[in-house]
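Exercise: predict the fold of this chain.
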Amino acid sequence: MQAIRVRLTALGVPQHALARALGVSQATLSLWLNGYRQPPAGFHEAAMAELDVIERAERAAAEARERALAEGRASRAGEGAGRARGGGGGAGGGERDVRERAGRGAAEARERALAEGRASRAGEWPALARRTRHGPASAER
């Protein structure tokens, strides 16, 4: 369980985000991670696989953001040279516009990577969705 907590912290992911991805409440995940309840079989593997998906999504978002920032700044630099030559003002926007476009691009890349990662794992952890707050449903006990 320590490895899951360490990865959550390293990725800056709150427990509720992992819990939602696994189909359980944050309270249930907390009980499992802190040793107050025994998690179901396969939990560790499912949690680590989901954290892999989240890590890939965060990496894709960071790359998209950096790419958008570089492209936006290069575009602005070209517009500045045109204005210096008397070419007039462009419609490219300022630094704020560049950052906003980069943020939107990062969010889109993150959502796309999450959707792709989760689609590839669909059905891999179906038992969690049938669990109650703190463990197996009463019929499974």
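Check your answer against the key: The radius of gyration is 22 Å.
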